[in-house]
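Module 6 notes. Inverse folding takes a fixed backbone as the condition and produces residue identities as the prediction. Think of it as a translation problem where the source language is geometry and the target language is the twenty amino acids. Below is one complete input and output pair. Work through it position by position during the lab.
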């Protein structure tokens, strides 16, 4: 990401938001493809400056759309787009007063998934879900992978149509896609949902599988408890029904790992893993092996 291009967006954003020039800039989190900074102004006013490259460069539109649909998200004060780059100013939520727990995660997921349609968001239905293992297999063939990864991808391809069945059963609607405790900010003004840059329309169970992360071994019992909490918080009864011939917790964890593996495979194709391809393929392999076991293929 070009720091000069990011900085060049700031004067126009400040003017659009009617904020003074030359704020103090303090990084909150900065990655290779995006960044978040706190801007402070004379007199104590502040805002958050968030910038991101494609494919994360439409978050301002998602935030405005879901806010109009009733979700509590940070207010967008200004946004600008250049080729493949988003810069936006959003409200400064301050420091959180507490961390999000499982109950808050379950009740917030119910809110998110009640939005069943938003214009211009990608859709991941049964057909698209079933196509993911094939996309992974083709990318691995181009970029190289272990025998274990190829074998798991092949097994998932063979079973994909069967295991993807019922993907469009409720909850099916807005999927946050990066739904973790850190995606929920509980501050002085209440709850705000963060990080919706990769939101799509699809199976809400993928969010529920995402909540506890994928860096440790999948825990079907823990996932089932979270699905149960979600259903008890107002989620649809179908949440706890078998789908694709599997129990819902295993189905959710398995397909979420397929979705994550496909995203890492995309990153290799975009050149993001240059010089570290082995690390990416190791992550893909782990997710595929977990998915094959969870989906019983």
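Target side of the pair, the amino acids:
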């Amino acid at each position: 990401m070009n720091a000069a291009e990011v900085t060049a967006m700031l004067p126009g954003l400040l003017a659009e938001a009617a904020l003074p020039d030359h704020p103090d800039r303090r990084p909150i989190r900065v990655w290779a493809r995006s960044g978040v900074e706190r801007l402070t102004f004379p007199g104590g006013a502040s805002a958050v400056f968030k910038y991101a490259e494609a494919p994360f460069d439409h978050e301002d539109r998602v935030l405005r759309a879901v806010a109009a649909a009733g979700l509590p998200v940070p207010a967008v004060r200004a946004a600008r787009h250049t080729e493949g780059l988003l810069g936006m100013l959003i409200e400064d939520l301050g420091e959180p007063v507490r961390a999000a727990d499982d109950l808050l995660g379950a009740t917030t997921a119910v809110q998110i998934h009640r939005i069943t349609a938003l214009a211009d968001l990608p859709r991941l239905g049964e057909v698209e879900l079933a196509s993911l293992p094939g996309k992974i297999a083709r990318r691995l063939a181009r970029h190289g992978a272990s025998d274990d990864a190829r074998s798991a991808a092949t097994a998932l391809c063979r079973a994909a149509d069967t295991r993807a069945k019922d993907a469009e059963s409720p909850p099916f609607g807005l999927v946050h896609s990066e739904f973790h405790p850190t995606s929920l900010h509980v501050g002085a003004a209440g709850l705000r949902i963060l990080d919706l840059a990769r939101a799509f329309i699809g199976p809400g169970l993928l969010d529920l599988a995402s909540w506890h992360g994928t860096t440790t071994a999948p825990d079907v019992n823990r996932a089932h408890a979270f699905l149960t909490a979600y259903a008890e918080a107002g989620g649809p009864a179908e949440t706890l029904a078998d789908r694709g011939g599997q129990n819902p917790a295993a189905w959710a964890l398995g397909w979420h790992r397929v979705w994550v593996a496909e995203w890492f495979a995309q990153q290799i194709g975009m050149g993001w893993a240059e010089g570290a391809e082995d690390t990416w393929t190791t992550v893909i392999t782990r997710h595929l092996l977990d998915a094959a076991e969870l989906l019983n293929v």
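Reference fact for the lab report: The first helix runs from residue 3 to 16.
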